[in-house]
Amino acid sequence: MPILQNAKKALKVSKRKASFNAPIRSRLKTAVDAAKKKAENGTMSSAFSAIDKAVKAHIIHRKKGAHLKSQLAKNAAKSVEKPAKAAPKAAAKKAAAKPAKKAASKK
C-alpha cells in the first residue's frame, strides 16, 4: 500500500481509469477478433466502431486505430477475392513465358 498522500491519490486515479478503460478495451479486442475470423459487413462495422471509440477514449493511439482498420479492410478484401480464377491465369502466363529450349549439339 502507498504511504505518501500523493501515491494514495495516484492509486485511486489509476484504479478509476482502469475500471473505465477495461470494458472499452474488451469490446475492442472482441470485435477485432470477430472481424478477423469472419469478414462480414456486420462484424467489420462493429469492429470499426469499437476501434473509433477506443481512439476517442485515448485507449489506443489514433495511428494504431488507423492501422487496425487498414489491416481488417485488407483481410476482408482478400477473403472476397476468388483465388480459383486467379490461379489458372498465372499458370497460363508462366507456361507462355518459358520458350522451348533448343537442343545443343556437341561437336
Task: List the SSEs and their pairings.
Blueprint: H1 5-37, H2 41-56, H3 62-80, H4 83-97
Radius of gyration over all CA atoms, rounded = 26 Å
- Determine the mean pLDDT: 86
Instruction: Quote the distance from N terminus to C terminus.
Output: 93 Å
Which range best describes the helical content: under 10%, 10-25%, 25-40%, 40-55%, 55-70% or over 70%?
A: over 70%
Write the element-wise H/E pattern from the N-terminal end onward: HHHH
Low-confidence stretches are none
Model description:
With 107 residues, the chain is mostly helical. It has a domain at 26-80. Helix content is 78%, strand content 0%. Helix 1 runs antiparallel to helix 2 (41-56) and helix 2 (41-56) runs antiparallel to helix 3 (62-80). The N and C termini lie far apart (93 Å). The relative contact order is 0.08.
Short overview:
The protein is 78% helix and 0% strand. The chain is mostly helical. The protein has a domain at 26-80.
Q: What are the main properties of this structure?
A:
single chain, 107 residues, mainly alpha
